C-alpha cells in the first residue's frame, strides 16, 4: 500500500518512521530543503516540492496511493493539498479510493468538518486536531496518579496504560482466571500486556502477571481510573468531583484547556500577564461562565498567587508559548501546594524529564497527532484501529454487530470470543442518536448495530473481522 505524507516536520517524520517499519510504500513531500535532507535517512522516497503542487503529487504516485496525509503546519496548505490529491487520484481512473487525512488547528475548519461540510467541498475523509486530542488525554491523565498513558476511545471509554506495582503481589504469579474469582465486582479488564524482553500479548485466564509488567486496562468513566490503579498496586490521591483549576496563560491553548475543564464541572482561574489577552478571554463566548475567573497578573508574582489562595487549587496547568516557561510555571505552583500539575509539550524528550521532576502528567502534542493519524490509516471500510502507546503490536478495533454475526442478540459470555480477542467496550446508540459505552460483562447483550471495541495483535486483525462477518 502506498502512503503519501505531505510535510517532513516532526509529525511527518515520526509518522513515516512508524509506517516504514511496517513495510508500507512511503513517499514524503516537503518544500523545505532542510526537512527533506533530514527525511533522506528514512527508507522511503523523499520529494522536494510543495504538497499543493499537482505535478509533485503525481510524481509521488498519488494515482496509485491509498492514503494521503497532509501534516504541514499550515491548515490552508493541508486543505488544498487534500483536495488536489483526491482530484488527481480520481482523474487517474483508479478503482480504489484514496483516503485523505488532514491535520487542522483552526476551530472554524474543524467545525466545518464536524458539520459535514468539509467532506463536501474539500472531499477530505478524516481530520486530526492534535490540540483537542492532547487536551483530552492531559485532562483525563491528571485525575489519577501513576498513569503512563491514557487513550481516549470517546463516549466516556478509556484505556489506561501503567505498570503492575509492588503492592499487587496478591495478583502476580497466579493465573488470571483464579485471580478473577477473588473480585466480587470483577477484575478490571486487561486488554494488553507488555513484559520486558518479551513480545506483547493478549491476556487470557491462564496468563500470569509479574511485577513491572506494562498493562492496558479498559475502563468506562473517569471514576474507574483510581480503582483500576489501586487493584494493580498503586497508591492514588483523592481527586474532587468539582476541582479548582488554575491555568497560566490566556492563549488559544489556555482558552481551550479552560473550556474542557468547565465542561467537566471545574472551577477555573486563568492568570494572564498581557492585559489585552486577559480582556479578550473575558469578552469571549466563555468569558461570562459563572465558574471562570480571568485575572490580569504575573503568574510568578507570589503576592497575586497568595491573593487567590493558590494552595487551595487542585490542578495547575500552563499554556505559555515556551516549553521551559511552562515547566517553570507549574513547578512553582506545585511548590506552593497544588497537588496535580500538567503540561502539553512540543518537545517529546521533555515528557520523561518532567516525570522525574515530579510533574503529575505531561503530553507530547506531536505524539498525539501521530497516534491519531495512525488510527485513521489503520482503517477499513467497516472499522478503525487504535494503537496503544506503550504496548507494541496490540491494537483496538471498532467493529459493528450485524445480523450476519452469529452472536448478534446473544450475551457476551455466549459469544465464544477466542482467547486472542479481548472485548473492551460495547458502544450503543440511543434513540436521540448519541452513543454510550458499556462494559463487556458476561451477561451484557450484544445487539444488532452495536459497535464493539476489541483488542488483538495486529497480525490477527483479519481474523477478528471475519468473526464479525466483515
Structure report:
The chain has helices at residues 10-20, 33-39, 54-59, 75-91, 107-114, 117-122, 130-141, 176-180, 225-231, 252-263, 275-282, 302-307, 323-335, 348-357, 365-377, 461-467, and strands spanning 2-6, 25-30, 45-48, 67-70, 99-103, 126-128, 149-152, 157-163, 189-194, 214-220, 244-248, 267-272, 292-296, 315-318, 340-345, 361-364, 385-387, 394-400, 422-429, 435-438, 451-457. With 470 residues, it is of the alpha/beta class. It folds into four domains: 2-128, NAD(P)-binding Rossmann-like Domain (Rossmann fold, 3-Layer(aba) Sandwich); 134-231, Alpha-Beta Plaits, CATH 3.30.70; 244-369, Rossmann fold (3-Layer(aba) Sandwich); 377-467, Alpha-Beta Plaits (2-Layer Sandwich). The strands form four sheets. A six-stranded parallel β-sheet has the order 3-2-1-4-5-6, with helices on both faces. The radius of gyration is 23 Å and the shape is globular. The model has no long low-confidence stretch (mean pLDDT 89).
Amino acid at each position: 500500500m502506498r502512503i503519501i505524507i505531505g510535510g517532513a516536520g516532526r509529525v511527518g517524520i515520526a509518522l513515516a518512521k512508524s509506517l516504514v517499519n511496517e513495510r508500507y510504500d512511503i513517499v514524503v513531500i516537503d518544500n523545505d530543503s532542510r526537512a527533506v535532507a533530514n527525511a533522506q535517512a528514512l527508507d522511503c522516497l523523499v520529494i522536494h516540492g510543495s504538497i499543493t503542487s499537482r505535478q509533485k503529487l503525481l510524481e509521488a504516485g498519488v494515482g496509485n496511493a491509498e492514503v494521503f496525509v497532509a501534516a504541514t503546519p499550515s491548515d490552508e496548505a493541508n486543505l488544498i493539498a487534500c483536495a488536489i490529491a483526491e482530484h488527481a487520484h480520481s482523474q487517474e481512473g483508479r478503482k480504489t479510493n484514496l483516503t485523505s487525512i488532514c491535520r487542522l488547528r483552526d476551530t472554524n475548519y474543524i467545525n466545518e468538518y464536524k458539520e459535514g461540510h468539509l467532506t463536501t467541498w474539500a472531499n477530505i475523509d478524516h481530520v486530526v486536531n492534535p490540540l483537542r486530542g492532547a487536551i483530552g488525554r492531559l485532562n483525563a491523565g491528571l485525575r489519577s496518579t501513576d498513569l503512563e498513558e491514557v487513550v481516549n476511545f470517546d463516549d466516556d471509554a478509556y484505556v489506561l496504560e501503567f505498570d503492575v506495582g509492588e503492592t499487587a503481589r496478591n495478583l502476580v504469579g497466579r493465573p488470571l482466571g483464579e485471580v478473577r474469582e477473588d473480585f466480587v465486582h470483577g477484575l478490571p479488564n486487561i486488554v494488553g500486556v507488555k513484559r520486558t524482553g518479551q513480545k506483547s500479548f493478549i491476556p487470557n485466564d491462564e496468563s500470569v502477571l509479574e511485577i513491572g509488567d506494562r498493562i492496558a486496562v479498559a475502563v468506562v468513566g473517569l471514576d474507574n481510573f483510581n480503582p483500576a490503579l489501586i487493584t494493580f498496586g498503586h497508591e492514588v490521591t483523592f481527586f474532587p468531583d468539582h476541582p479548582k483549576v488554575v491555568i497560566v496563560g490566556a492563549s488559544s491553548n489556555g482558552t481551550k484547556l479552560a473550556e474542557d475543564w468547565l465542561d467537566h464541572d471545574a472551577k477555573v482561574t486563568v492568570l494572564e500577564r498581557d492585559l489585552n489577552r486577559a480582556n479578550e478571554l473575558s469578552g469571549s463566548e466563555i468569558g461570562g461562565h459563572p465558574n471562570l475567573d480571568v485575572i490580569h497578573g504575573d503568574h510568578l508574582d507570589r503576592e497575586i498567587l497568595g491573593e487567590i489562595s493558590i494552595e487551595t487549587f487542585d490542578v495547575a496547568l500552563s499554556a505559555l508559548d515556551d516549553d521551559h516557561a511552562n515547566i517553570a510555571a507549574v513547578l512553582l505552583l506545585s511548590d506552593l501546594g497544588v497537588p496535580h500539575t500538567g503540561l502539553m509539550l512540543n518537545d517529546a524528550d521533555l515528557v520523561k524529564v518532567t516525570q522525574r521532576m515530579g510533574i503529575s502528567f505531561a503530553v507530547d502534542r506531536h505524539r498525539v497527532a501521530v497516534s491519531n493519524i495512525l488510527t485513521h490509516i489503520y482503517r477499513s471500510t467497516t472499522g478503525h484501529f487504535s494503537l496503544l502507546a506503550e504496548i507494541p503490536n496490540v491494537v483496538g478495533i471498532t467493529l459493528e454487530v450485524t445480523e450476519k454475526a452469529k452472536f448478534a442478540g446473544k450475551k457476551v459470555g455466549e459469544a465464544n470470543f477466542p482467547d486472542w480477542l479481548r472485548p473492551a467496550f460495547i458502544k450503543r446508540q440511543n434513540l436521540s442518536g448519541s452513543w454510550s459505552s458499556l462494559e463487556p460483562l458476561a451477561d451484557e447483550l450484544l445487539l444488532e448495530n452495536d459497535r464493539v471495541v476489541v483488542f488483538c495483535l495486529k497480525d490477527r486483525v483479519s481474523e477478528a473481522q471475519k468473526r464479525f462477518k466483515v
